[in-house]
Specification:
By secondary structure, the protein is mostly helical. It is 49% helix and 0% strand. The two termini are 23 Å apart.
């Protein structure tokens, strides 16, 4: 579990809010992604998961889809998070 007040979580939350022009919501999730724990242990750092998927995307269904606009927003969020961490 990541610390919600850590620098990386706060930078990511700020970046997410800036990109979407809406407050970031903190949702405890990710336990179904086994590599998350491994990444945290191996790196000795915190792992932050950000989501741009929508329920209507039907992820893992035969007709799943994901908008390119949200892929772009994800990249911009990551870039802005790194920028904030570098300046902080």
């Amino acid at each position: 579990r990541s610390n919600a007040s850590s620098a990386v979580v706060q930078a990511t939350a700020q970046a997410f809010s800036e990109v979407l022009d809406a407050p970031c919501k903190f949702i405890l999730d990710g336990a179904s992604i086994p590599i998350v724990t491994d990444l945290a242990e191996v790196s000795g750092g915190e792992v932050v998961l950000i989501g741009y998927g929508l329920p209507g995307d039907q992820i893992h269904a035969p007709n799943e889809h994901f908008g390119l606009d949200r892929i772009r927003k994800g990249f911009v969020t990551i870039a802005r998070s790194l920028e904030l961490l570098g300046n902080g």
